[in-house]
Amino acid sequence: KAKISVLVSPHIGIAVEWKLQLYPVLPYIKPVKKEPVAPSSKQKSTWRPPDSHYYKYGHTLINKVSFEDTDKDILAMLESIFLCKYA
Question: Could you give the CA distance from residue 72 to residue 52 in angstroms, rounded to a whole number?
Answer without folding.
Answer: 44
